[in-house]
Batch of 4 targets.
Target 1
Amino acid sequence: MTKPFNWKIFFIIWIAAVFGVVAVIPYTLTLQGTVLQELDLPIPLPLLLAIQIGQNAVMFAVLTALGLFFANRVGLGLPILEAKLAGESVAEKVRAILLPSIIIGAVAAVLIIGLDVFVFQPALLNQLGDAAQSLADGSVKPPAWQGFLASFYGGIAEEVLLRLFVMSMFVWLGSFLSKTVEGKPTNAVFWIANILAAVLFGLGHLPATASFLPLTPLVIARAIVLNGIGGLAFGWLYWKRGLETAIVAHFTADIVLHVLFAL
């Protein structure tokens, strides 16, 4: 059954995503500091940032609206927020998702770190030599406080983009090809949508990686595999427990990766 569009949910999610966009700015400026110093910007940096925030606000308004449109038609959404806005008690629901989300996010982060340190970094050093040294010695890692702020972008904005919009859209499109007898998308549709969103999640990190590494096939594979681990986990949580669960897991993973691992 298709759920009606909820404007309150739209505005809450949209404002949260825009907050994430603003919060990630210090982290991004640190990563791109060397590049920015070499650029001759046509306008002052603060004005450029304000324009980018405005553009992202418009983009996330559209993505949030479309994401809710698709999610409402395939049984996805934000069950805790929906229940809260309906006047229901959500304490039990929050307790039910909190610990599993934190554990899954933390485990995903540890797997990502392990694969990167013991598999990808040695391979990149062997292939790229000095070009990959900054990745191995951590010189490109922003400080922990910036990583904490950036975690809000990952946990909220990226989940709105990749899960609420992209994954929901793929599930909706797939539902025209494969449905259960009840008229719902099949498990295969959900998994294909989850995998596609996870791959796009990995590819979406390549522009940041390109600021300090050449985009070789190994670098691209690293981005897809490492980010795909988290993406698949967050997508599964979104499918089974709702977007709130995916947000908590993604935020936890980013805290481990960008805060604890940066100390």
Note: The chain has one domain: 7-262.
Target 2
Amino acid sequence: MDLQLKDKVVVVTGGAKGIGEGIVHVLASEGAIPVIIGRNAEDNQKVVDELAGQGFASSHVVAELTEPAACEAAVKAVIEKYGRIDGLVNNAGVNDGVGLESGDYERFMASLHKNVVHYYLMAHHALPALKASKGAIVNISSKTADTGQGGTSAYAAANGGRNGLTREWAVELLKYGIRVNSVIVAECWTPLYERWIETLPNPKEKLASITAHIPLENRMTTAEEIANMTVFLLSQRSSHTTGQLIYVDGGYVHLDRALANS
């Protein structure tokens, strides 16, 4: 299916690794021009060079998104280079384990800046360009807002915020024809997830116990599967879809837990 994204400029925060990188690759394969926003120039450039080697256009902007001024500067740099923004994917963040017992005010607030404040700031600063293009926003979110996880109050709160902002913006931006949706991630295999598993005493056994609770095919979701849904939601092929929280999780959140034993 042609998603009609040729030459569309799409900003992807955290687009150099994991789910973000998957989104960038799918966007490029559809003819869009992904712009990676991330703190590490070397990581950003590696993806840009890889795409160039495949004949795809992309670029990057170095920005520390926990700094409000950097969010504004990043959006300004994209507009100066391309003169437009057709889509925004808010993706950057980290499950940093700031819990109720293990955290404190400073760490909690810092985690919110890592995980949800820049979602607002990037959308706010990109909004004039998105109004002009009647673009779309996709917020990447996590099942922790629904299920909890334990020991990660700040990240769970941030994801609840991401979901709330998705529906709030979908309402507020109706008059501009800007669609806003969220893709909810549960257990997705990324390099970061793999590194976490390897820190555990019995990583293979732990991974097997996790996948046993994923109803569809008892396997992890792939970054590409998250990316495919994200890119579809950015495209006009999803032209009457807005305000939706879409779970790409193999049924992990909503299907009966008894399925794990069947």
Note: The radius of gyration is 18 Å.
Target 3
Amino acid sequence: MKNKLREAYKDGRQVVGTFFNMGDMSSMECLGYTGMDFVIIDTEHGPYDTEPMMDLIRAAESVGLVPVVRIADVTHREIQRAADCGAEGLIVPCLRSVDEYRKLVDLAKYPPVGNRGFIKGRGSGFGNMDWANVPLVEYMANSDEKLMVIPQCETVESLEHIEEIAALEGIDGIFIGPFDLSISMGIPGQFTAPEFVAAVDRIIKAFHDVDKPAYIYTNNPAESRVRLAAGADGVANSLNSIVMVEAYRQIVKEIKE
């Protein structure tokens, strides 16, 4: 049982994905033919409750995309439903204190690392996948390996404690949210400001120092290349809603010219 994002990091291969905030299973399947590595199903800002989220996970799996889910907050319901339905990564927004990161681990990881509620749910083939049809202790370890816990760093409070956060057992990586982080720093949208560049560098270094990946949201391919060159292990480039509008706008422009 392997998590493709973990394997890519171990192999030194940078990954590319996007946010999925509109669309259905067919739209998700289409993304699988683009060459992307992963997709983030956005249940924080997107319209998806449990069953639609589960269907999108299925669709992502069917075309080889790693299904990652951005949940709304650090609560038992949010974490448990995404994990049980088969998410292979959890993106968790708006954290501020180190204790919030510890709570996340406690809810998302099985003992001895955390205290996740036990079930052999849809993500394990209801216990019938080879990696899940094992003794309980082994099942819990395999589940923890399958599910990457990737909180966001998007607040000054998180930034100030990022080295301590990176060292926490059960935190598998970090996702940098540049918009909210820059807003929290008092420099909204100033992604090339020296203090913002230094903040991103600090976050990436903190996680690389403990051999964990750092991912970041980007607005366009040019920015993605810059972030990857600066050491990010992966980028989530734009949102599928934005990409669709931009693509059709360009088509209309070319037709009317």
Note: The first helix runs from residue 4 to 10.
Target 4
Amino acid sequence: MRITRMLAIAALTFGSVAGAQQGPGHHKKVETQADLQKEAKLSMADARAMALRTVPNSKIEAGEIEREGGKLIYSFDMKVAGKSGIDEVNIDAISGKLVSNKHESPAAERAEAKADAKAAKAAKAKP
């Protein structure tokens, strides 16, 4: 029992070190917001201002920088008073161009949040 537990701890330790490396056969390194921000040519403040211009009379409920589809983007969830759902605005963090602006109904928003939570749980469970 004790040896099994020690092996499990060693496997977890090795797995987390190996997972931090990049390259063939290795897990991708988890990039933090700060890591991604260092790569961006556009500041978060400028991206926020652009998002607010893109969806007039809105308020930013959430915003982050992320890598999606191979692109480094700022993603903002925008709420317009009196309108159900949210508008999701994505801005290229390198070029500063608008990538997308789409409206999500409350049901689509819940489905996306559920899928994101499931993906995060699966990523956390991988060694």
Note: Residues 106-125 form the longest helix (20 residues).
